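Please check this record.
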Amino acid sequence: MSQPPSPPQNGRYMPNGRPRPGASGSPAFPSSQPRYIDYGNPRAYDTSVRPASGLTAARYAPAQIQRPDHAQPQSAWSTQTRRAQEVSQEAAKVPAVNIAVWLVTILLGFALLFVLGYFFLQFILTSSSNPVWWPITAFLALFSLVIITLVILLADRWDPQPFPLLIIAVLWGAAIAAFASYWINSLNALLFYAIGGEGFSDFATPVISAPVVEEISKGLGLLLLMLLARRYFNGPLDGLIYGALIGGGFAFTENILYYSRGLETGGVGGVLFTFVLRGVLNIFGHAIYTSLTGILVGFVARKWGTIMGFLVFVPALIPGMLLHAGWNLFAGISDNLVLLLIMFGSKALISLLWMIAIMVLIWDESRLTRVRLGDYANQGWLTHEEVDMLATWRGRREGKRWATQIGAKPVMKRFIRESADLASIRQRLLADGANPRVVDTERTLLGRLTANRQELLSYAR
């Protein structure tokens, strides 16, 4: 019995006869049809499970990838032999952000100056210690913030966030969240005292009030960043980065208060003891609590869109609140060495798990970049060799080394950075639908992608 004829193998069909994903009936490019490659399991980033109606439905229709007007030439990267050599790193260009971001940065900077001035004045008026010790406590608190910031900058290397947004995260935690929490917790302490006396206030303020008030005040900074720059808050890794910096800023101001109290009660020894407990053994405490909220908000926003990212805010606070409350509870009852060792051993384990989570999220972000850039490669905007170069650590490293040899390293770095941004924009279009503003951003980045490829090709020639 004769077999039915197979569909034409012109690039729009897979070997089993089914249309390739994203293929249309439009005519092929004048020169060639782009080759399709499956870039793994995209269901991990699937947004098709969103409801078709209701509050959580996408406001816009799904965003389709348009074909380029002309077939893209083979890139210089595709035609060269990969070579490696040790090269010096150049600073990446800071992505442009709107004027509102700069305005908020300046306002938060003044707010931090006010908060620090307020606590310094309070130290002078209420403490019997020499005022010269206050800057020393601030320096010790700054040490912990620097360590947290360095860890986060390492985590932010795959798709770096704009520097002003990172500054906003730190300033929000150090100024707004810390100052608001200080006053609200103080008022709650008075309320608890009126309800159940000093014993109840000493228990409820750190175990109930502090976790709820502080995690909400810090978490609101995440929502502010989503409002200011949704383009750069596009996944769980972004949420972790912003959340950890907000927590680090909060701990900076709070540690100044604790070190000042340690100075008042125990002198220099009291300061050093408090520094070891809070600034060394529990250095990542607030960073971990707030980053958990950021991870959940970022994951939901990436998969189900911006509105759902805001709606999940309250339940996303719960993990950080529980960890925070548990730590404060055990800190209040740990009156012997064994309990202290158990408590700080547990925090060390939690910190290790947090570090592992950072590495997992970096790997997940690189996988998403490869999947989304693969969508563009399957439509002809990129070559598949370029996807491997742009979306893997090894490919990026070798691409920079090769570009250095032809004098085009700045172009390659820009190509890598803008391609990662394009992948994030594509994921947002899938989650939120074809928002016209985001579509315009995608179109601009596609134009930049083409220009970067042509510039690399001209250097290679």
In short: The two ends are 56 Å apart (CA to CA).
